[in-house]
Structure to design on (289 residues):
């Protein structure tokens, strides 16, 4: 009981009840597809669709068992490396609303990183990896990667901290959330160990797996280099996965490879956010036993 009391104290005032780390749902089932509710806020904009040039912030995730994860508990990509992209110039970029206050506003193309915009060099890929990292290090869903070409890319991502699964069977609290414009792009998620070797089970994400955000659809924008909105608003969709499907109980490093096919018609526009559904190990280190 002491541990539970300590966790409660640590999280008091930041987490809605029931607490993260409470008993796993009794109704865990291998056939159910988790569909947590994802709530966004658009400060300064009463109509969320008017916020596509600014901040579209993921505020909290509510699992089907009622457990709530606030944005302060999100785990972001801490490091991105081994970026592979051999597609055309003027197509692969990081992007944020020109009026955004969360994340750096504006558009940055991979080929421009080394100062020579004519081609994509090794230095471009390395510098763009750092750019991807800062793009993903916040809860602004408008601040994301955009690829506007029938091409592919891959990268390795190290999360800020290891995420653990609260239930080593399939459960209704997914740990990894991948956001994608329109949900029309496909990718593979491969868990890696610290040395970069494959572990667990690769999961292939098909377009049909990337679904509208509930309870309310979420809209984001696309921007030209001068900050102008391009071609209206886009629905941002989400794929979420329980670590059990990835064949691991905890993970920190993942390789993501985008593809063409399997219902995907254009390459992936991504934002990645993770959640540790079982915070007890971290909380234990903070107790005074
Ligand atoms: Ca270049
Ligand atoms: Ca699980
Ligand atoms: Ca889980
Ligand atoms: Ca897309």
């Amino acid at each position: 009981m002491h541990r539970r009391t300590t966790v409660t104290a640590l999280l008091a005032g930041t987490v809605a009840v029931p607490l993260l780390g409470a008993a796993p749902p009794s109704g865990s089932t291998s056939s159910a597809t988790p569909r947590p509710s994802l709530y966004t806020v658009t400060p300064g904009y009463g109509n969320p669709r008017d916020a596509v040039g600014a901040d579209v912030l993921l505020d909290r995730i509510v699992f089907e068992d009622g457990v709530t994860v606030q944005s302060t508990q999100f785990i972001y990509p801490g490091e991105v490396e081994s970026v592979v992209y051999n597609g055309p110039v003027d197509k692969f970029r990081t992007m944020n609303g020109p009026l955004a206050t969360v994340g750096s506003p504006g558009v940055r193309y991979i080929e421009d990183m080394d100062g020579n915009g004519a081609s994509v060099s090794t230095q471009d890929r390395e510098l763009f990896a750092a750019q991807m990292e800062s793009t993903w290090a916040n809860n602004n869903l408008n601040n994301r990667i955009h690829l506007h070409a029938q091409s592919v890319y891959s990268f390795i991502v190290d999360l800020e901290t290891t995420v653990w699964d609260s239930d080593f069977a399939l459960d209704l609290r997914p740990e990894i959330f991948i956001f994608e414009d329109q949900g029309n792009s496909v990718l593979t998620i491969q868990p890696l160990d610290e040395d970069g070797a494959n572990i667990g089970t690769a999961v292939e994400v098909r377009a049909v797996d990337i679904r509208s955000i509930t309870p309310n659809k979420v809209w984001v924008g696309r921007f030209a280099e001068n900050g102008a909105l391009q071609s209206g608003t886009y629905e941002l969709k989400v794929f979420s996965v329980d670590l059990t499907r990835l064949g691991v109980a905890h993970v920190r490093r993942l390789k993501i490879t985008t593809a063409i096919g399997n219902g995907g018609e254009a390459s992936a526009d991504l934002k990645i956010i993770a959640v540790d559904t079982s915070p007890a190990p971290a909380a234990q280190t903070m107790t005074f036993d």
Notes: The pocket of calcium ion (ligand 3) is lined by residues 165-167, 171, 173-175, 242-243, 277 (CB under 6 Å). Residues 122-136 form the longest helix (15 residues). The radius of gyration is 19 Å.
